[in-house]
Inverse folding.
């Protein structure tokens, strides 16, 4: 998109027409792109940080969190048999190559991005997996419909219809029960 607009300006188009060519309303953005291109060259075609909070933890740090999480905790050292977010935070902060300022929220976000969720059994598993004991052995059972259930956020399963249930009360004491389709 940036290259197309800069090329249009190089071929003689004004900023407004170049902006409209790439789907923008105003030529100011194209003007800034051209100015940056004149200073930086082809590097100006790469998008930069677009606002919001500065990214503090890049891929190496995220991989460090995941590698620590996948390591079995030492009972004597960490004081736990399974990781919680707080114990994982403590271990990451105390490690020599650790992340000294990491928050529990960041750890939780990284684990969630990697597909893990906190189970009622106080353990972390991939979404759609659960630990069960079968014939005296601990096994991990995987739900084959995990993807379908995750995409069905409205909890509407095939063949059912969403309805709005409401109760209307009037001053005279009349109560109406209505059911409206969405």
């Amino acid at each position: 998109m940036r290259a197309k607009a800069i090329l249009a300006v190089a071929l003689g188009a004004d900023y407004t027409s170049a902006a409209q060519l790439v789907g923008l309303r105003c030529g100011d953005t194209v003007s800034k792109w051209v100015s940056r291109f004149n200073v930086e060259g082809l590097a100006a075609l790469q998008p930069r940080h677009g606002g919001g909070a500065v990214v503090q933890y890049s891929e190496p740090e995220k991989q460090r969190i995941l590698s620590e999480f996948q390591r079995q905790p030492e009972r004597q050292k960490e004081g736990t048999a399974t990781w919680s977010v707080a114990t994982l935070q403590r271990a990451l902060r105390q490690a020599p190559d650790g992340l000294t300022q990491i928050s529990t929220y960041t750890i939780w976000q990284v684990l969630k991005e990697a597909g893990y969720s906190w189970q009622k059994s106080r353990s972390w598993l991939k979404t759609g997996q659960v630990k069960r004991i079968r014939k005296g052995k601990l096994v991990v059972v995987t739900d084959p419909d995990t993807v379908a259930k995750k995409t069905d956020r409205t909890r509407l399963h095939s063949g059912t219809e969403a309805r709005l249930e409401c109760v209307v009360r009037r001053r005279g004491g009349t109560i109406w029960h209505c059911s409206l389709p969405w």
The chain has a mean pLDDT of 79. DSSP finds eight helices and six strands in the chain. Residues 14 and 61 are 45 Å apart (CA to CA).
